[in-house]
Amino acid sequence: MSNMELVKMIDLSRCTACRGCQVACKQWNELPASKTKNWGSYQNPADLEWNTWTLIRFQEYVDAKGRFKWLFRKDGCMHCTDAACVKVCPTQALYHTEFGTVAFDPERCIGCKDCIPACPFNIPRFNEQTKKIGKCDLCLSRLRANKPPACVLSCPTGALSIGPKAEMIEKAYKRAKALGEGASVYGDKFVGGTHVIYVLPEPVSAYPGLPENPSVPLPIILWKDVLKPASVIAGGGVLAAAFLHYILHGPKRPVEDTQEGGSEI
Which class for 96: exposed (0-12), middle (13-18), buried (19 or more C-beta within 10 A)? Predict the structure, then answer.
């Protein structure tokens, strides 16, 4: 894989919930296991965690024709182009890579947790012990070594694939068309386009946790894209005015007392 914009496609019509991707993610990233308990679902653990970056979600579903189905969804970071987490991170611990993905540098993380409410997909998780967040980086070290992410390599059914952005989006739409019956592509039309896209065999509304119109929260847009640049411009204007005054009038000197009878100190 060369240094180009990459997209991972998740074809949920081919997912069998084997959880091979979930295990492969843990192994490659050396993430410790959590102590879990039976909570009435095959889904384990119950949610994403600082040490669980990939999770297969299980859902019982009845479609419009009254047919019962199991829906499985691989959940994890969507790697947005217009990434709210990157926008709010004050230390650049979250950043875009040469592949367009969003990576994380734990050494820079100060535990502010601003990225957690900012993410429209509810992805980053906080580690109370280390006071840092954790999330998928799409196996950046593997991408740089020209290898697919561990989850893609582990998938036995071809539900996961990765490749150049344009190629993968075209592939996703062809697959959705072949599936028919309301199948759709999710991820390429919002937040600047995500670098993880789904082929959904059922309507978006059938998958809890997938917002129909995800976007960067308005307060973040106002602060990062409007108010902050304006404050920089304003600050630059003050500096420019001060410099111009210096050029025209020279440095400001203290006024000397030249009146007669002035007292000496």
Answer: middle
Phi, psi of 186 (to 5 degrees): -125, 125
Taking residues 48-59, report their average pLDDT.
97
Distance CA 21, CA 5 (A): 22
Is the distance from CB of 43 to CB of 56 less than 8 angstroms? yes
Q: What is the pLDDT of residues 179-229, one digit of tens each?
A: 998 899 999 999 999 999 999 999 999 999 999 999 988 888 776 665 555
Asked if 101 and 136 touch (Cβ cutoff 8 Å), the reply is no
Burial of 82 (0-12, 13-18, 19+ CB in 10 A): middle
Q: For residue 8, which amino acid is it?
A: K
Strands 6-11 and 196-200: what pairing?
A: parallel
- CB within 8 Å of 58: residues ≥ 6 apart: 17, 41, 42, 43, 70, 71, 72
Is residue 260 predicted with pLDDT exceeding 90? no
Is the C-alpha dihedral spanning 19, 124, 93, 188 positive or negative?
positive
CATH entry 3.30.70.20 includes domain 6-213: yes
Provide the whole-model pTM. Answer: 0.82
**What is the mean predicted confidence (pLDDT) over 150-159?**
98
Q: Where are the domains of the chain?
A: 6-213, 217-250
Q: Are 198 and 206 in contact (CB under 8 A)?
A: no
Q: Is the pLDDT of residue 55 over 50?
A: yes
DSSP H or E run through 135: none
